[in-house]
Amino acid sequence: xxxxxxxxxxxxxxxxxxxxxxxxxxxxxxxxxxxxxxxxxxxxxxxxxxxxxxxxxxxxxxxxxxxxxxxxxxxxxxxxxxxxxxxxxxxxxxxxxxxxxxx
Length: 103
Known about the structure:
There is one protein chain. 0% of the residues lie in helices and 63% in strands. It is mainly beta. It has a four-stranded antiparallel β-sheet, with no helix packed on it. A hairpin with a 4-residue loop joins strand 8 and strand 9 (82-88).
């Protein structure tokens, strides 16, 4: 059984005991997170929401917070002496799906 959920503007496939890498959430490690915006549930039958499936909730636990490797952004225009170098490290959280309730 799995569910497609929408979380912080992105869609993820959530299965029991699956580890999801999501954009960083402001929650302590070990705290519970409930996701109510379930788009699709697949078990014995497939249930598609319009836009969300009513009465279905995905429960998860925050496991850790990490950062991606640095990405270098370099802007350059020839013959104009224009150079800009910046970097970015995306922060994300790992959440482990515990249960798909109501399916």
